[in-house]
Design a protein that fits this description.
This protein is of the alpha/beta class. It is built from 19 helices and 15 strands. An 8-stranded parallel sheet has the order 6-3-2-13-12-11-10-9. The protein has a 3-stranded antiparallel sheet with strand order 1-7-8. Helix 2 packs antiparallel against helix 7 and helix 14 crosses helix 15.
Length: 545
């Protein structure tokens, strides 16, 4: 039997005026051929796994529960296997900074003093074609040390010496998102394969020459089968480009409720390439609401800010993650400190920084090996928390946390939280959702809102809680709105008031220059439609310029 004919090269389908400068440096024929081959080999499996997600969600809706998989019990019971040893560049991860791959952030993140920079093509980046292409260019420029620049305001940005720079770990888009500007035979290539493929093609060998390697954060993973797909992508990519097997390292974000039941299996599937697991917050809660949104009162979450990492079901999740990682020789990485320091309000600043310190102290004390921050000013605070526990050690994988015993029911025991939805919580969800979506539609993925650095996960949990509260007919039981039911009409009223308030705050001209009406309409669509959208970024992507 003859070999199948090679697919035509992926073609770029960006409209007039939508060709980023230096695009040709990224989209070479050889790079496009590599992405095309990734697409041909792996997109059909991606499609099947997305279909499996829908089947699993239907099963959760039918049963109202989740459990550890019986068919993989032998993997969990086998004490003999471990993930690959950490490369030197990823052995000490006590502080990691996150952010998009724009030029300013690239320099600031690398210079921040953090051990790792999560260079984000996912939730902190609105996937305009300009952002995707220039983000890839910025990373190459950083590795080639030609990224220094002076801003229009006259401020100079320049890289520190190589030994002082953070190690880059790239987060590609999740499996569910396509890249409409890159197509093979008319079909869009999955964004995950575009982001991974272009970065790996251009930088894998360059990074190995620098003593590091192609390292990745894998988002939105919902099962060990999705991790297996990623592992097969890594194996093929390394073989195809002649890169030594095992050069890739991947850290998986456990930010879906289904993945929380498959942590060991996910590490097992990636064991030759695994580096660790990360404990998220907003995306994890979003996933919990999405999967149990029609599960009745016991699954209704209160205001998002009332669901801290000390909630019993969140403690179960994070402690199980630490135990799982350390049992298998992997790093356990904690959650985000999203606070943005405000030097104009010293008292508020001091209170917020104390909260950050308490959070990082808790993570270090629980056995995490590192944690995330969103702003360079928080790096010293997080580092001090982990320095106090680690000292000169690079991590604390020797803390096996054998005292932790988590049941399947513990992970979804939402009703153990002593808090209820409030009217102000609903207002906050509408306000934050509207403000974030508007910025996203203008091409911004990391957005400062009310003193916090927010990304797409914030909008997802906000709109999901609105949907859940309406669907469950939540009745407020405190404050001036006691006895009032959450209805679609109430949400529309709050959304209209939010829009009017933003217009008054911004002024008519600035308001008209933004995308506020589109943001308002999209929020109501994904928060109120009976047909719940799996990800708000899917309909939002159709509105991007």
């Amino acid at each position: 039997m003859s070999a199948p004919a090679p697919s035509p090269l992926a073609t770029v389908e960006a409209g007039p005026g939508n060709t980023p400068a230096r695009q040709g440096e990224i989209l070479t024929d050889a790079a496009l051929a590599f992405v095309t081959e990734l697409h041909r080999r792996f997109t059909p499996r991606r499609d099947a796994l997305l279909a499996r997600r829908a089947e699993r969600r239907a099963e959760i809706a039918r049963t109202g529960t989740l459990d550890f998989l019986p068919e993989t019990a032998h993997i969990r019971a086998d004490d003999s296997w471990r993930v690959a040893a950490s490369p030197a560049a990823l052995n000490d991860r006590r502080v990691e900074i996150t952010g998009p791959t724009d030029r300013k952030m690239t320099v600031n993140a690398l210079n921040s003093g953090a051990r790792v920079w999560l260079a984000d093509f996912e939730d902190a980046t609105a996937p305009t074609w300009e952002n995707i292409v220039t983000g890839q260019l910025n990373l190459i420029d950083a590795y080639e040390r030609r990224i220094d620049f002076t801003s229009p305001e006259g401020k100079t940005y320049a890289l520190k010496p190589a030994a002082e720079l953070a190690t880059v770990v790239v987060r590609p888009r999740g499996w569910h998102l396509d890249e409409r500007h890159l197509r093979v035979e008319g079909r869009p290539v999955p964004g995950a394969l575009v982001d991974f493929g272009l970065y790996f093609f251009h930088n894998a060998r360059r990074l190995l020459d620098l003593g590091k390697g192609p390292y990745f954060y894998l988002p939105k993973t919902e099962s060990h089968l999705e991790a297996r797909l990623w592992n097969d992508v890594f194996v093929f990519a390394q073989e195809h480009l002649g890169v030594p097997q095992g050069s890739v390292r991947a850290t998986v974000l456990i930010e879906t409720i289904t993945a929380a039941y498959e942590m060991e299996e996910i590490l097992y599937e990636l064991r030759a390439h695994a580096s660790g697991l990360n404990a998220g917050r907003w995306d994890y809660l979003f996933s919990l609401v999405k999967n149990f949104r029609d599960g009745g009162a016991k699954f209704v979450l209160p205001d998002r800010n009332a669901v801290t990492m000390t909630a019993p079901f969140m403690r179960a999740y994070t402690e199980l993650l630490v135990r799982t990682c350390h049992r298998r020789g992997a790093h356990a990485i904690g959650g985000m400190a999203a606070f943005i320091p405000n030097r104009r309000d010293p008292e508020a600043n001091e209170r917020a920084l104390a909260k950050v310190k308490s959070d990082k102290d808790r993570e270090a004390g629980d056995g995490f090996d590192g944690s995330w921050v969103a702003h360079p000013d928080l790096v010293p605070i997080a580092r001090a928390s982990f320095d106090a526990v680690l000292g000169d050690r690079p991590h604390q994988k020797d803390r096996l946390r054998e005292d932790v015993h988590v049941t399947a029911a513990d992970l979804i025991a939402v009703d153990t939280l002593d808090a209820r939805p409030t009217y102000q919580g609903l207002v906050d969800a509408v306000q934050v959702g509207t403000r974030y979506i508007e910025a996203w539609l203008r091409g911004l993925g990391a957005v400062a809102i009310f003193g916090l650095m927010e990304d797409a996960a914030t909008a997802e949990i906000s709109r999901s809680q609105i949907w859940q509260w309406v669907d469950a007919g939540v009745v407020f039981d405190s404050g001036a709105h006691t006895g009032e039911r959450v209805t679609a009409e109430l949400v529309r009223t709050i959304a209209a008031e939010t829009l009017s308030g933003i217009r008054a705050e911004a002024g008519d001209d600035a308001f008209a220059a933004g995308k506020w009406q589109q943001a308002h309409d999209l929020l109501l669509r994904v928060a109120l439609d009976a047909d719940y959208a799996d990800f708000l970024t899917l309909p939002a992507y159709e509105l991007l310029d």
